[in-house]
Each structure stands twice: as structure tokens, then as C-alpha cells.
Design goal:
There is one protein chain. By secondary structure, the chain is an alpha/beta fold. It has two domains: 5-238, Putative sugar-binding, N-terminal domain (Rossmann fold); 251-425, Four-carbon acid sugar kinase, nucleotide binding domain (Molybdenum Cofactor Biosythetic Enzyme, Chain A). The protein has 15 helices and 18 strands. A hairpin with a 2-residue loop joins strand 7 (130-133) and strand 8. The longest helix is centred in the last third of the chain and has 21 residues, at 334-354. The radius of gyration is 21 Å and the shape is globular. The mean pLDDT is 94. Adenosine-5'-triphosphate binds next to helix 12, helix 13 and helix 14. Adenosine-5'-triphosphate is lined by residues 11, 13, 146-148, 264-267, 288, 318-320, 324-325, 328, 337-338, 341-342, 364-367, 409-411. It comes from Rhizobium tubonense. Keywords: ATP-binding, Carbohydrate metabolism, Kinase, Nucleotide-binding, Transferase.
Length: 426
């Protein structure tokens, strides 16, 4: 059966966020980790989200991986491919949102590509091309302190232009709220001015429904889960999606085993969630400095967990405050610190799985990528939502047997996230 909607996600938490949105809006969806091997038995689905770990790699590597995934999706029938980026537009002046979007657009022969990170369910809105996180402009939000890509400019037309060859324009809220024809007219006008990508304003889900209708008739778009919602609803309205009786609850039959979490996200939301979790379950704070200089800290963490996970869920976290992250990065460099900590958290997670953990929560996109890759999980089925943008995932084709995972985007979830996640995965 042909895929109705293809998507390439630039990180694994973002992929599960999008897969969750598509599922909730009527598309049977599978999340694959990279391009799956030909031998992997995938279910009959309407949408496939290919998870890549390309948000913070060199632009050329991101373009190559995304182009290959795009080819795979289109060969399986996808006429539209959504490049799923972060709702906080995580990127740098080198990329990778601009370079990947341009490469996908050039391959598909696309004119002006619609780009919007708006995701109202998590408070991300775009007005006059400026991104708001809740009530704050992006550059005044906690994203200004992100360990890998601190965001210092809320004007996305400017941000995207700095990392792109195509000229960037704006589809403003006046056009979006006037409906599909007004958006198309605006895109035609931009094309006539030689513009090749357009940031689209969107505040409410209705705006994203309009943008989804317009985007679906083009070969490629770039956005967060909000645009996914618009595309899914447009597809459902078009009558192409077969009706099915199964529900997301079918994806989370109990798997047994023990439960644990690892956290590498340093977002304000994750730091608060860890503080709250520490009141009701064991939480180990790793010493990042020790992680960078040797492996003793990893062994100590595994032994700490060994004594506790048979009694109930436990959490191991590298997460630290912006000041501590800054200190570590100034001593060891940004990339070296990030990679070493990702490696350490993934080794710890894999060891916990070897010891019988089958329900695993991971906080942070890069961290989730490192953990899922080390566990060599090929794909996920999407279960019920723990918090907006975070579903329970059930592994498909894993060598560890059936497992339930939750890959939490750094900024997502309320303060009780960990307790809620473990309860839903029980
Ligand atoms: N104490 C620390 N000091 C410096 N860097 C850290 C520390 N703890 C974790 N890191 C690194 O910070 C980065 C956090 O990125 P990650 O994508 O996992 O979380 P996030 O950005 O909050 O999540 P998302 O991308 O889903 O929003 C990782 O590279 C991780 O290894
Ligand atoms: O869009 C978001 O904010 C998330 O899905 C994400 O990509 C964080 O890594």
C-alpha cells in the first residue's frame, strides 16, 4: 500500500512528537529509525516518519541523509514529504533547516516552500515571522541557553535567510486567516519576486489547517507538529485515508520488565521535572566533569541503578543548569561535551536494558538519538499520549524483544512527567 504522507524528522523525539500528532489526527503511522532494512515487516500505514539525527551535524551530512530518506519515501508513494524540525527552530547560521529544505525542494522541483514551526498545543506560535515560546519571544525564552544551538533571534525570516541560498519571504497572518486562496496568491506573489521559501505565520490550529491544505498540494514543506496536524487533517478531509478500528491503546500491551529513565536534556522543563521526580523516586545526578575524563562515573551509575531498579523506576541524569553547562563547555568544548555525555547516557541505558529494563524514558532529542541507536531499535508503533508531543512507543523488530519507550523532547511535559510516564507504561 502506498504511503499517503512521508516525513523526515531531524531528531528522534521530534519524530515521535510528529508521529503522535499524525496518529491523533487519523493517520496510522509508524516511526522508523533511519531507513529501515528491506527485511523489516512494517504494518499497513498511512504515514511514515523516518527519524534521523541530523539537527546538529554538518550541513552536508544532514542533506545527504535527508535526501536518501526522501528518495525512500517517494519510492513508496509519498507525494508530499514534511521535513520535521523543532518547534523552537533549533539550528545555527550553518543550518540545518535551510540547507535540507532547499535540497528537498530542489530534488522535488518545488517552488516556494512553506516553513512554520508553529505548534499551538505546546505554546509555539508565529506572528509577523517571529516565533513565540509561550508568551516569550524565542530569543528571550530558555532556548537562548540551549547547550547545542542557543537561539538569539526570534525573527525566523532572518534566521532562515542566514542559513539558506534561496531568498526567504513571509506569508503573514492576514493571508493565512483569509484562507487557502489568499495563501496561494501570496505564494505566487513571492515566487514572482524570486523568493524560494516562506515562513508562515500561524497562531491557532485553524491556521495550520489552512497551511496544511495548501502544503499538501506541493511536494515538500518544513515544519513542526502543527504543520503535521494541518497535513493530516487535509488528508483525512480528502477522503484518501481508510477508516480503521484499532486504537493507540493496542500499542501498549504490558511488556513487563523493569522501568528506568535517562536524561541528557538541560532544558528548564526537564530540570524541573527531575526535581519533582526526586521527591518520589530515586534520581542519580551524574557528575559531567567525571564523565568527560573517564568511565568510572558510568560504572558507578550502573551499579547505583542495579541496587534500585528492581524496587521501582529510577532515573539517571546528566542534566545541569545553564551555568554548569557553560562551565563544562568552556573547559572541554561544546561538541566534545555533548558527544561524551550522549555516549555515556546511551551506554548506561543499554546496560540497564541488558539488566532487564523494558520500559525506558529518555529525556532530550540528541540523547534519545544516542540511546535508540545504541539499542539498535529499528522502528516504533505509536501508543497513547503522555503529554502533548510525547507518546508511549512500542518497539517493532527490536533484538531486546518488546519494549515501551518514551522519547521526551527537552521542553515538553508538565512537572509530573516522569511519574505519569511510568504509570502509563506500567
Ligand atoms: N551537564 C551537561 N553539560 C553539558 N552538556 C550536557 C550536560 N548534560 C547533557 N548535555 C548535553 O546537552 C545536549 C542536550 O541535548 P538534547 O537534545 O538531548 O536535549 P534537549 O535539547 O533539551 O532536547 P530537544 O532537542 O528534544 O529539545 C546533549 O548533547 C547532552 O549530551
Ligand atoms: O518540535 C518540537 O519541539 C519537538 O518535537 C522537537 O523536535 C524537540 O527535539
Amino acid at each position: 500500500m502506498a504511503i499517503l504522507l512521508g516525513s523526515i524528522a531531524d531528531d528522534y523525539t521530534g519524530a515521535s512528537d510528529l508521529a503522535n500528532t499524525l496518529t491523533k489526527n487519523g493517520l496510522r503511522t509508524v516511526q522508523t529509525v533511519g531507513i529501515p532494512d528491506a527485511g523489516l515487516a512494517l504494518l499497513e500505514v498511512d504515514a511514515v516518519v523516518v527519524s534521523l539525527k541530523i539537527r546538529s551535524v554538518a550541513a552536508a551530512a544532514a542533506v545527504a541523509a535527508a535526501t536518501e530518506a526522501d528518495r525512500w519515501l517517494r519510492q513508496r508513494g509519498a507525494n508530499h514529504v514534511l521535513y520535521k524540525i523543532c518547534s523552537t527552530f533549533d539550528s545555527t547560521d550553518e543550518g540545518n533547516i535551510g540547507p535540507v529544505t532547499e535540497a528537498l525542494a530542489n530534488t522535488a522541483g518545488s517552488n516556494v516552500v512553506l516553513v512554520t514551526p508553529a505548534f499551538p498545543a505546546t505554546g509555539r506560535t508565529v506572528f509577523q515571522g517571529h516565533l513565540f515560546v509561550g508568551g516569550q519571544l524565542l530569543n528571550e525564552s530558555p532556548l537562548k541557553d540551549h547547550p547545542l544551538n542557543p537561539m538569539h533571534d526570534a525573527n525566523l525570516v532572518r534566521v532562515l535567510a542566514r542559513q539558506s541560498r534561496r531568498t526567504v519571504g513571509l506569508v503573514d497572518l492576514a493571508a493565512v486567516s483569509a484562507g487557502q486562496e489568499a495563501v496561494r496568491a501570496r505564494l505566487d506573489a513571492l515566487l514572482a519576486q524570486g523568493i524560494g521559501m516562506a515562513i508562515a505565520d500561524a497562531i491557532f490550529e485553524g491556521d495550520l489547517e489552512t497551511l496544511g491544505e495548501v502544503a499538501l498540494k506541493t511536494p515538500v514543506s518544513t515544519g513542526a507538529s502543527g504543520l503535521g496536524l494541518g497535513l493530516a487533517r487535509a488528508l483525512t478531509r480528502s477522503g484518501q485515508v481508510p477508516s480503521r478500528s484499532e486504537t493507540t491503546a493496542d500499542a501498549i500491551r504490558p511488556v513487563g520488565g523493569m522501568a528506568a529513565a535517562v536524561a541528557g536534556s538541560c532544558s528548564r522543563a526537564t530540570l524541573r521535572q527531575l526535581d519533582v521526580a526526586a521527591r518520589s523516586m530515586p534520581v542519580l545526578r551524574l557528575d559531567p566533569e567525571k564523565l568527560l575524563v573517564g568511565s568510572d562515573e558510568v560504572a558507578a551509575a550502573i551499579s547505583w541503578a542495579g541496587d534500585r531498579i528492581s524496587l521501582g523506576p529510577a532515573i539517571i541524569a546528566a542534566s545541569a543548569s545553564p551555568e554548569e553547562v557553560c562551565r563544562l563547555q568552556s573547559r572541554h568544548g561544546r561538541d566534545a561535551s555533548g558527544h561524551a555525555i550522549e555516549t555515556a547516557t546511551s551506554v548506561i541505558a543499554a546496560e540497564l536494558v541488558t539488566r532487564g529494563v523494558r520500559r525506558l524514558v529518555v529525556a532530550g532529542g540528541e540523547t534519545s538519538g544516542a540511546v535508540v541507536d545504541r539499542l539498535a531499535i529499528p522502528a516504533f508503533l505509536i501508543g497513547p499520549e503522555i503529554a502533548p508531543g510525547v507518546p508511549v512507543l512500542r518497539t517493532i523488530g527490536s533484538v531486546h524483544g518488546d519494549m515501551l519507550l518514551a522519547l521526551k523532547s527537552g521542553n515538553f511535559g508538565d512537572e509530573n512527567f516522569f511519574a505519569t510516564a511510568f504509570e502509563m507504561m506500567d
